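user: Kindly work through both lines:
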Amino acid sequence: MMVTGGSLAESASAVGLCREHPGLFATVGCHPTRSSEPGKHPGGADAYFRGLRELIDQSRDRVVAVGECGLDYDRLQFADKAAQEQCFLRHFELAEATGLPMFLHNRNTGGDFVRMVRENRHRFSGGVVHSFTGSADEARELLELGLYIGINGCSLKTDENLAVVRGLPLDRLMIETDCPYCEIRSTHASHRVLAQSAGEPGAWAAPEAKRKERWSGECMVKGRNEPCMIREVLAVVARLHGAAEADVAERMFESTRAVFFGGIKHGF
């Protein structure tokens, strides 16, 4: 599993968690909504990004991507466009210096995200635009740039979303939970697809969920999108493409391994 870093402090925590659990790997970066942080760092933005670089260099066996980084114009109250673009540019520098792929975020940017990626595409090896909710045209632009599309519950809310995912090539998709958020909810169009799959032989059923005060190792925490719920995303994507879940899972696993784990010595 990949644990996402959203700031210098969070990235350090993510790496520390990954050192405690051999099956976990981290990303290191500054989320676009945190783009004001580098300028407020005691040593300034240069020191902030130097800290990210040092964290990567000291943890090459645990860090698999630069990010989460990108642009988010839905939440400009946290960081304005200028701060986000400046911060995003520094991540391209980081990816170029370390040779790592990128874990990318794009929300309602009116073409600015694609423009910046296109201008800097030569500086990084590859990556995924996660939690994709855009149009078929947006997806096509990203695919043409050699990127992968990341799908989770938020990517499957509407019938339009389902149509977009149905039209994307399986060998360019990745799936995720983005936990503890972005679950498939009963109000989502994808919930109907899940209901169609539920009665099929071998269909996966989510573990029981209990309030955190009553949690045990055999259940999930109620209200939290646990990592195992990636199985629901898989079921929807497979059904949309008329493919077997095992085949879809294998293809996405291989894509994920090729993009993010090629330089890591692990037990896969």
